[in-house]
Amino acid sequence: MKVQLFIPCFVDQLYPQTAFNMVKILEKASCEVAYNANQTCCGQPAFNAGFWDEARTVAKKFVKDFDTVDYIVAPSASCVGFIRNYYPKLFENDTSHNEVQQLGKRVFEFTEFLTDILKIYNYGAVFNAQATYHDSCAALRECHIKEGPRKLLSFVKGLELLEMDDNETCCGFGGTFSVKFESISVGMADQKTRNALATGAEYIISTDLSCLMQLQGYISKQKIPLKTMHIADVLAQGWE
Length: 240
Description:
Layout: E1 2-5, H1 9-14, H2 16-28, E2 32-35, H3 44-48, H4 52-65, E3 71-74, H5 77-90, H6 97-106, E4 107-109, H7 110-118, E5 126-133, H8 137-142, H9 147-154, E6 157-161, H10 177-180, H11 182-198, E7 203-206, H12 209-222, E8 227-230, H13 231-235
Parallel strand pairs: 1-2, 1-3, 3-4, 5-6, 5-7, 7-8
Helix pairs in contact: 5-6, 11-12
């Protein structure tokens, strides 16, 4: 099975190891993985800031860069949710509207692709730790991802998954929300980390590095005894 990787801007710049771990896992599942080095952003930051024309320009490049019949897999439900749900709005009266709709059917968040398309749950990972899982808003509400990541984690040898209170509550990032409403954002991060701590977990795991970046920033600032990990990094533990 052929897979095209879409690596979001912040993952490329700040968390490249997660992308490499994605490749390891997909190749272990016998996927033929390709990466178009010309790819850039999906356009979500501009769209959310109200710059729809600029977002449309970036989105057109995305459509061109991924003009294949292959599956597109990304380690970010936020980006995937944007492409699926808002590209049709951006191109509503455009000749490429049908092409964009078809694109939305080929793009998948990483864990969603593993569980819904590959239907493989056990990747032989070993991670001796206690962890809690954070449902990102985009994964839960825009991609309808809930049980898949938990099922993948249930097959990780040595990992004990502990559910925290209000696991579906936002972490407070929300892109520009965390900049425009800093005090509210910090309060939401505080609530999330307190709920995680109450479980006795050592790690917070999620599908979205944007959430984990928000939480890790607060954790580091407050010197809280917690760590964050993307689920791809967990699934790549314990094997070469």
